[in-house]
Write the C-alpha cells for this entry.
Amino acid sequence: MSTTQTTLIGRASARARAVLPNRAILTSMGRSPRKDLPAGLTVAIVALPLALGFGVASGAGAEAGLATAVVAGALAALFGGSNLQVSGPTGAMTVVLVPIVHQYGTSGVLTVGLIAGGLLIALALGGAGRFMAYVPAPVVEGFTLGIAGVIGLQQVPAALGVKPGGAENVVVAAGQAGAGFARHPHPAALALALGVAAVMPAGARRRPGIPFSLLAVAAATLVAGLADLDVATIGHLPAGLPLPSLGFLDLGAVPHLLTAALAVAALAALESLMSATAADAMSVSERHDSDRELFGQGVANLVAPLFGGVAATGAIARTAVNVRSGAASRLAALVHAAVLAVTRKDALALRDHPLRRPRHTHAPRRRRPAHLARTPR
C-alpha cells in the first residue's frame, strides 16, 4: 500500500471518529437522569400531536409522522452533535414533502429521505458543518416566515372540513376550499379548528408549563366523539413499528428525485444547525458540534424511511421545551422517542376503547300483551 493511500485511509478514519459518538458523550447520559427523565416525558407530550399533525400535513399519514418521531428522534439524539437537540418531523420539511407526495406518492417521499440521509452523511464527513454559520440571519428569518405562511394555507381545507382539490398551489387550494365551504358549510370542523387554535396560545400565555397543545387536541377529540360530530379523523394507527424494508425503493425513479433530495438535505442541514444553535443560546455551557450534528441527522434520515418515516430535522420548538424542562444530556431526547414508541404500540389498544357506549347494551324488554297483563288484586 502506497504512502498516499495510507494517508487517505488515515484521514477518512479520523473523520469517521470525529463524527461518531465517543465515550464521553455516552457516559454523560447517565449523569443527570433525574433531570433528563421528566424533561423527556414533557417533550414527548408536546411532540405527540405535532408528530401526528405533521405526518398528516405531509400527505404520508399520521403513522409516518409518529414513526419519524420515534426512529429519527432516537438516532439523531444518539449520533447528533447537540446534547439538547430534539429531532422529528417539522413544518418546514412538510412544505417540501407535500409536492413530492403529489407527484411520486409515499414511496417517492421515502426514497427522497433515504437519499437525503446519505447526502447529509457525506456533508458531515466532508466537514461542511462549519460553512452553515455563514448563512445570513435575515435569510433564515424570511425562510421561516414564508414556511409559516405556507403551512397555514395548507391547513385551510382541513380546518373548513372540505376535501382538498387537485391544485398544487397552496393559495389556489385555500381559495377553492373557501368556495367549497361557502357552498356547503361545515361548522363543526371550523368550530373545532378555531377552538384548538384559540386554546393553545391563550393557555400557554397563562400557564407556560402545561402542554395545552395536547390538552386542546384531546378535548376536541372527546367533544367530537361524545357529540358524534361529522368530522374527519386521523384513523387507525398500527400498533408498533413495521419491520425495516426497502420495498419502497424504485431505482428507476432515483434520477428524478435527486433534485428533491438535495432540497431536503439542504433544509435538514440548515434547520437542524439553526435549532442546535438556538439550544446553545438557551443553555449555559452547551456548544454543539456542527459536523457531528449533520452526521446524526444523516443517520436518522437514512434509517427512518426503512420504518415508513419521512424526512426529519432538528425541531426548534421541541428543543426549546427540552431545554426549558431542565434537560442535561441527550438522554432526554432518547426518553422522548421511547415514550412515543410506547404510545404507538398502545395505539391499537386505545382504539378498541370507544369514547362512548351504545345507549342500549341489551335488547329492549318486550311489553306483555294486553290480554296477558296481570290485573291488580
Notes: The chain has 15 helices and two strands. Confidence is low (pLDDT under 50) at residues 348-377. Residues 91-125 form the longest helix (35 residues).
